[in-house]
Amino acid sequence: MHNKDKQTAQLDFDGQRDGEELLFVFRRHIIAMRKGFYLLLIPFAISAVPPLIWQANLELFLLPIGGLLLGLILFAYHYLMWYFTVYIVTDQRIRQITQRGFFGKDVVELRLSKIQNISYNVPGFSGEIFDFGTIVIQTFVGDLVIHNVGHPDQIYNKLQDAVSAALAERSQGDYEETIA
Predict the structure, then answer these.
(1) Domain-located, residue 96
(2) Does the pTM exceed 0.85?
(3) DSSP letter, residue 57
């Protein structure tokens, strides 16, 4: 397989339409997984207390290992939910795929030509330090709010470019129909 064939194979996704070009894919910032990190650390920290108090009982030193294993299982669940929640932007639409549990999935699609406005905000000091924010995509029907987006300014600019290109293509198609 040639290098270009490998790149083309990587640019396909489930539900892609004929002639639809993938522009970019993004997911939420890793800060969205902070609950998973807490669930990793809390069982480990709690299970580490008894061996510190009763140091003579050597069997208690196995407790932190059990706490760590429990924490890893809880963390893995949150990691999978974060990893399989993606936002796919093509030259025609935005597709939000949200993982719900191990077997559930929600899919929301917005045509780029239906987007009225895109805005973003960075929530204060922590957002500035860790470079995450919220993007709001407004349509006639409602808003698509994407929380904890990494590099919101860059994603915002890419989305604006995609919407502008889709509107230009749509108006070009309307112009050609008027002439014909």
Answers:
(1) no
(2) no
(3) -
Cβ-proximal residues to 83 (8 Å cutoff; 6+ apart), any chain: 27, 99
CATH assignment of the domain containing 117: 2.30.29
Q: State which residues form the domain around 155.
A: 3-26+110-179
Q: Tens-digit pLDDT profile for the chain (180 aa)?
A: 444 444 444 567 777 778 788 899 999 999 888 999 999 999 999 998 988 888 888 788 889 999 999 999 999 999 999 999 999 999 888 999 998 988 889 988 899 988 999 999 999 999 999 999 999 999 888 889 999 999 999 999 999 999 998 888 777 655 454 454
Q: 3-class SS at 16? A: coil
- Would residue 91 count as lying in a domain? no
The answer to whether residues 130 and 167 belong to one domain is yes
Tally of domains within the chain:
2
Per-residue buried b or exposed e for 122-132, using 16+ beta carbons within 10 Å of the residue's own CB: beeeebeeeeb
Looking at the structure, do residues 74 and 115 belong to the same domain, yes or no?
no
Amino acid at 42: I
Domain assignment present for residue 84? The answer is no
Q: In angstroms, rounded to a whole number, what is the distance separating the alpha carbons of residues 56 and 79?
A: 37
Which pair of structure tokens corresponds to residue 161?
């470019």
